[in-house]
Every structure is written in structure tokens, then in C-alpha cells.
Amino acid sequence: MRLVIARCSVDYAGRLSAHLPLANRLLMLKADGSLLVHSDGGSYKPLNWMSPPCSIAMAEPDEDQAAAGITQVWTVTQKKTQDRLIVSIHEVFADETHDLGVDPGLVKDGVEAHLQQLLAEQIELLGDGHTLVRREYMTAIGPVDILARDDAGASVAVEMKRNANIDAVEQLTRYLELMNRDPHLRPVQGVLAAQSFAPQARTLAEDRGIRCLVLDYDEMRGIEGGHARLF
């Protein structure tokens, strides 16, 4: 991972346009090719970013750019959409690169792990005729919580969350992109299973063809009054 603290401006060009005026920011360039632009605020959320697959080109400024004080121009291009994130760097304050190694993945808390176990035991909640293949199906970027098959034999990848947000949709999307490259698995359907959903997560999931399964922890444990439904 490369971490650069620089005075820069950022422009996003593609399906929508956005501009970040000149300011001091953290540029986070990850090994997967993604670039995230952070300010000293806003918690974990970047001001702008480009998700993989993407390519990055670092170039010297042209005459007009140099005259405006720009010393480097980074152009990050999304390979599928051709959207571009253009970072115009004026001054670099710090530039460090660190090898973080292979991440073991998220260690789930007790409730989330128990939800996974319960859904594996009650796989019919996904729909009639569904069967369990295995829990913690490993991919190149981490384990999918549950791999199942529907009544037609098609693969179904299930990601479990207590509270599903946009990050959960993005995580499952990355898993599905990888799994659909495997001729033994594709086509792979996606199901995001959670006790609650942020409205934006539900909208994004439905737009990407990912089903949302609302789980009731108490009902799955045999306590009356709950529900689990797909919508």
C-alpha cells in the first residue's frame, strides 16, 4: 500500500462529475489498484475513490498545468466504465509504501457467526429447493459466508451481516465478480442476508441483481414472533 500526503485537487469524470478543490489530503493507493482520497475527517469514508479493476498513469504536467503549480498528474481509469479520477498534485509532504501481506479476512462476532450457522442449518430460508454446498467458501479475496445451490442447481453466494450497508453490497459484488469467472460455478447469484438494511444498500443491491434476505435472529433460534423474508 502506498500512502501519499499531498496538496492536490481531484476531478472525477464519467457517469457523473465531481471536483475537490486544492487542499491537503491523504491519497491511498492499494495493491489491488484502487485509489482512495481522504481528508482529516469523515471517519472511514473517502472523499472520492476509484474501485478496481482500474489502471493508474502518473505523468508530468503540461506547460499550463506546471504554470498553475502542478507537479504531478495521476489519472486512474476504471477499466469497465472508463470513468476517470484525475489527481493534480501540487506538493508532496510524505510518500511511503508498505507491504501489508495477505489479510486473513474479517473475524465475525458471535451473533454474525451464529447467524451464518443458523442459516446454513435452515438453508430453505433462501427459497424452496435450496441446498447447502459449504460454509466459508474461499475465494482469492476472502471467504464467502455460504455457498448454496437453488432448485435448478445454480450457484448462490450468500454474505451475512448484522446490519447491511453499501460496503456489504460492494463486498458481495467483488465476490460475485470472481466466482462468475469460475466455469464450475457460474452463473452465481448473490444474496445479502442481514437483520437490517440501510435503504441505500437495499437500492444498490437490487440494482445489481442481488437479493436481500431479512433475518430474524430470535425466530431462527426458535423464539416466536420473528420473520425472515426475501424482497
UniProtKB/TrEMBL annotation:
* Cell compartment(s), UniProt: Cytoplasm
What Pfam families does this protein's entry cite? NucS_C (PF01939), NucS_N (PF21003)
EC top class, as a word = hydrolase
Q: Which residues form the Endonuclease NucS N-terminal PH-like domain?
A: 2-104
Predominant location category = cytoplasm
**What Enzyme Commission number does this protein have?**
3.1.-.-
- Where is the Endonuclease NucS C-terminal domain positioned along the sequence? 111-231
Q: Which keywords fit this entry according to its UniProt record?
A: Cytoplasm, DNA-binding, Endonuclease, Hydrolase, Nuclease
Cite the PANTHER family for this sequence: ENDONUCLEASE NUCS
Family of this protein: Belongs to the NucS endonuclease family.
Function, please?
Cleaves both 3' and 5' ssDNA extremities of branched DNA structures.
The protein in question is named Endonuclease NucS
Q: Which organism is it from?
A: Curtobacterium salicis
Q: What gene does this protein come from?
A: nucS
